[in-house]
Amino acid sequence: MRTQTRLLAGELPGTLRRITLRAGSISVDVEWETAPAAQSPAQAPAAPAAVTAHAPAPASATQQSDGTPDGLVRVTAPLVGTYYQAPAPGAEPFVKVGDTVEAGQQLAVIEAMKLLNSITAEVKGTVHAIHAVDGEVVEYAQPLIDLRPAG
Fold first, then answer.
1. More confidently predicted of 105 and 39
2. Which long-range contacts (CB under 8 A, 24 or more apart) does 29-32 make?
3. How many domains does the chain have?
4. Each residue's pLDDT tens digit, 105-125
5. Whole domain around residue 40: which residue ranges?
6. Chain mean pLDDT for the chain
7. Integer Cα distance of 112 and 136 in angstroms
8. Mean per-residue pLDDT, 2-31
9. CA–CA separation, 52 vs 76, rounded Å?
């Protein structure tokens, strides 16, 4: 597994940021920065495995420009792939509506090209809504989870 990981890291189209290896059930989590080239998200399925969050709209609005209800942070898919809400079939989901999460906590995974990409919270808060369906393909920038920031 180490040799394959080194080969993968050497073929990445950008600067390597992080590689996480797990031996049980074999899982590799890779994150890197791509050059700001003119390529569409569909052409770059290996974009960094991070969430896209939008800043809250002004308090006078009822909805943000992306359709997210006021005061919520929307977690969107950073790449095209299969969305999984649990670490394994039949396991408890990473989060459920009403759960309190910490910044950096894993919310879900998206599998793309046999790689599992962690979807993490960028803010501390409460899970307000889960939009994606377990086991279904999600598109780039598709809404996955809404968080209500703490405080």
1. 105
2. 29/115, 29/116, 29/117, 29/118, 30/115
3. 1
4. 999 999 999 999 999 999 999
5. 2-149
6. 76
7. 12
8. 64
9. 5
